[in-house]
Input
Amino acid sequence: MKSETRTFYEQAVYRAAERIVSGLDESLELESLARGAALSPFHFHRVFRGMVGETPLELHRRLRMERAAWRLLDGEDPITAIAFDAGYETHETFTRSFRTRYGCSPSEFRRRRTSDINDGPGCERPPQIELATRSGIHFVPGPSGPFTFDFLNGGHVMKTNQDHVMNAEITSRPELRVAAVQHVGPYNRISEAFARLGATAGPAGLIGPESTMIAIYHDDPETTPEEDLKSDAAVTIPAGKALPKGLTEFRIPAGRYARATHVGPYEGLGDAWARFMGEWLPASGQRFGDGVSYEVYRNNPSNTAPDDLITDMYIPLA
Output
């Protein structure tokens, strides 16, 4: 069962990567990639990032940049044309991005052709086109196919730092009734919604020793503009408790969930989610179920050092 489930996720990611690398000159339709993988956009992009080590957009941009580097060495196309084909609107923005990746400008890179190096003292290395990545997916020109696919067969995908192995457990969760304040905008500003939640729920007597603070994320940040992302800052409330004006009731379904725990600053939660969905889930034999993924905050950031913050992450399982 585990091998079959892992194969399902690997093949879903493989198909998506294949579409990306075979369509570098096309606009990247992220929702279409998710549909082709038979996953929701929210789940697909976290699985993809966790397994490949890059988001679909990052993979697309890196391969375009590697192709640009190859064209600089292999031909005489104007740098401006190469920049446009790499997805940059101006020569200047392409040059800045190229310098960040390769440590020199495109014109300097072009001057380092192999033919020029062979005329030198013999100790220089030819310029390297491939950019560092753990996936093994690179731009490779030639009639046999423009790309290699080492990230599944080579076993690169599931490598992880053994000092930071992602552990999770499967647990049954009861239905949770929560009072919520919606946040629309970048997820890293959900603290603003928690401030509004506290200002309303606190005076109403809804926050106490038995309360649990929860964040619920509804949109995929890869396919939804930051200003349109929807999430909820929520607090658990007992049955029958009336909600004051300004709070919305939401029920998180009961069921089987996978739980992983992140210890440390909230800034690290994005990477933790990526490893949870991209490393642990494909190897677990489990699949996503109906419901929402959410975070439970087990201590208070106002009186806890960032390195000691504890957050439980929950994924609904089929």
The chain has two domains: 2-153, 169-316. Residues 114-126, 143-164 have pLDDT under 50 and may be disordered. The longest helix spans residues 2-21. The beta strands are 169-173, 176-184, 213-217, 230-236, 248-252, 255-263, 294-297, 310-316.
